[in-house]
Amino acid sequence: MEQTKKKRLWLRIVCIVLAVLIGLIAALGIAFVSVWHDEIGTLMSFELLRERNDAHEDGAVYKMNVKGGYYFDEFLASGGAKTDPDLIAFISGHVTRGLIDMGIKESDIGCASFTAMTESGDRLFARNYDFAKTNVCITLTKPGNGRHASFSTADLQYLGLDPEKDVEGLMNKITCLAAPYVPLDGINDAGVGCSILMTYQGEVDTNNAVPTDRNTDKDDITSTTMLRLILDYADSVDEAVELVEEYDLHDSANTSFHYMIADATGKSAILEWVNGTDETDNDGAARKLVVTYNTGDGDIGEREGKSDFQWVTNFIVRPGYYREDTQKAGLDRYDRIYDDLAATNGVVKDEWAAMEILGTVGRRSWVPGSAWTVHSVVYNLTKKSVLWVGNENFDDPTAIYEYSFETGELKNGVRP
To answer: What Rg value do the Cα atoms of the chain yield, rounded?
Structure first.
C-alpha cells in the first residue's frame, strides 16, 4: 500500500513538472511568435523564383513579401546612420535581433536610367542594374501607417551573401530580412520611381571613388536607405527632394553615387552631391546637393534642354565638372540612350519598347565580358505596374516578371 502511494505521489509530481514545462514551452512559443510575428511571416514568404544559370552568369532570383514596418520609422527616429557599420548595427539589433553578423559589400556599379512616355500617355521610368554575377531579391513591402507600399530589387551580395551559392539555411534567410534597407531601384504605389547609380567621383587624385559624407546638424542617411525613404514616404518628385534635403547623405560601400527620381506627372530629377570639379572633388564632407530637373536642364546641353525625357548613366551631369568628355564614365551608353529616345521624341510604343532600349545598352551586348546586367526594369508610373527581366533574358518567360499594385500579384510574363 505504501509503495502504491509513493508511486502515485511520484506520478503526480512528474505530471506537475511536465505540465509546468509544457506551460513554459507554450509561453515561450507564444512570446516568440509575438515578438517575431512579422519576421516569421516574411521568412515564410521567401521564395526562389528562378534558379541560377552559371553558363550565362545568372544569379538566382528570389521574392519576399515583407510583413510589418521593418523598423524603418524607428531607424529614422534614431537619427539614421552615418556609416555602413552604423546601419548594420541597427539592422542586426532590430531586424535580425542580433542573430546575424552582417556586412555591406563594396561595389562597382555601372548602370543606366531614363524616362519616357508611351503612345497612350503613360509615364515610364526604366533602369538597368549592371554589376557582377549576383543573387537578387524582388522585395514587396506594405508597411501601412501612412507609408507607401513598394516594389524594389535588392542585391543580396550587398548584404554579404555569397553570389556563387543559393540562399539556403535559416541564418542566410534571416539575413534577407534586411532587404528593405538596401533597395537599388523601385516604385511605390504613388507612382514615384527611383534608382541609384555609381559616379566614380574624385578618382583623379585618389585610388578609389570618394563617398559623399555630409556632416552637419541634420539627421543622417546612407545611399540605399535614402531610396527607402523616398519609396516609403514620397508622393512626388518634389516631395522626394524635400525629404532628401532634410538629411546628411553618407554614401555606402566606400564609393560615390547619384540618384534619379521620377513620378507619374512626367517630372524627373537627378540628385548629385558635388564640390567643384572632378579633380578637386575629393572631400566628401564638402559636397552639396544639386538637383537637375528634366524641366530645367538646358544648362547641361542643347539636347538635354530640348528633351522632355531625362536620362543618366555613371558620370556627374552638372556642366563644367569634367575637364574633358573622356573622363565621363558611361558616356557611350548615355549617347546611345539619347539617340534611341530622341528618334521618337521620347515617346515609345509601350513598356517593351522601353525595355528594348535597355537591352541595347545591356552589358552582355554592349561590352561582352566587362560586367553583367543583373536586371532590367521598366516602371509604369501611371499604371503603377512593373516589367522586370533578369540577366538580359528578354526572350525567356521564366526570367520575365510583371507586377501591379492593383492586384498585388507578381507573375511571369511573355515578350510580345
So the answer is: 24
For 241, which DSSP code? H
- For the chain, what are the domain ranges? 46-412
Eight-class DSSP state of 9? H
Contact yes or no for 154/183 (Cβ under 8 A): yes
Supply the pTM of this predicted model.
0.90
The string of DSSP codes covering 307-327 is -SS-EE-SS--STTSSSSGGG
Q: For residue range 344-389, list pLDDT tens digits in order.
A: 999 999 999 999 999 999 988 887 777 799 999 999 999 999 999 9
Extract the C-alpha cell encoding 201. Answer: 567621383
| Eight-state DSSP code of residue 133 | S
Q: What is the residue whose three cell numbers read 567643384? A: 276
CATH number of 46-412: 3.60.60.10
Q: What DSSP state is assigned to residue 147?
A: B
> DSSP assignment, residue 209?
P
Residues 232-265 as b/e (b if ≥16 CB within 10 A, e otherwise) read bbbebbbbbbebbeebbbbbbbebbbbbbbbbbe
User: Using one digit for the tens of pLDDT, what is the confidence trace for 113-164?
Assistant: 999 999 999 999 999 999 889 999 999 999 999 999 999 999 999 888 999 9
Q: 3-class SS at 76?
A: helix
Strand, coil or helix: 273: strand
